[in-house]
Amino acid sequence: MERLIIIGSGPAGLTAAVYAARANLAPLVLAGHQYGGQLMLTTEVENYPGFPNGILGPELMEAFRAQAERFGAKIENVDVTRVDFSVRPLRVWAGDEEYAAESVIVATGASARWLNIPGEVHLRGRGVSTCATCDGAFFKDRHIVVVGGGDSAMEEALFLTRFGSKITVIHRRDTLRASKIMADRALAHPKIAFIWNTAVVEAKGEFHLQGLVLEDLVTGERRDFAADAVFIAIGHDPNTEIFAGQLELDKAGYIVSPDGVRTKVPGVFVGGDVYDIRYKQAVTAAGMGCKASLEAEKYLEERDAERALSLRG
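User: That's the sequence. What structure does it adopt?
Assistant: Structure tokens below.
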């Protein structure tokens, strides 16, 4: 029996672990085989407080993890495959391994969204990617395409200028959704070009990406477009499949919470991008993890008090 299980190991999950461990709850973090959340796929983080010169995403998450372990958090790199929140104690499975807990914090984050076009699955890892940090170096002096118009897409494009001879950003609209500072950087970069009002509708190539098929969303015309790599940066989907039927989810799959911390299941709390449909920042995820941990601590204290009263009675 665990006092607290934390599912997920991004900024929300590991911040929750730090606070819970300092409260002597000895939390168990089920981190996943690929722990650390989306920051493990991020290059330089410039907007996390305390790092005026920036810090690499993986380095920041390693520091989070070390701090949680220092205070007594137990971390297992396993993927949670099933939960049952309809019983007490709460049940969590990682494969055949079953865990029981008095309380749970869900901080499973979100995953990159794909285009779901012909050729995409076949060419993943062979020119089609969602991770510039992972795969950008393979395309030195090549023509690279980035799909998307938000901050993530601009960050990918700017990072890829270190490797590619030319970066082409393809966006479905005629203006960027990115923040002004990120948009201005990309628009001003001499290596980055833009194609507006256009969708990528096919990835072509047998053994590696050789080109794309583009559709003009104004005229409907399609054309071939030569490219050596395409990096897709069109948003994320919450990692909530295992919570369907256990927690209330909205139409997009995000966990519903009346206050951004509690769920409708007593003892189950939420933090980070698995709930946050609006901000999606490392610092806000960390704040949510802090709140979830404090609420879990309060919940467990109240349960302990109730048990003590019942024993006296």
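The first helix runs from residue 11 to 22.
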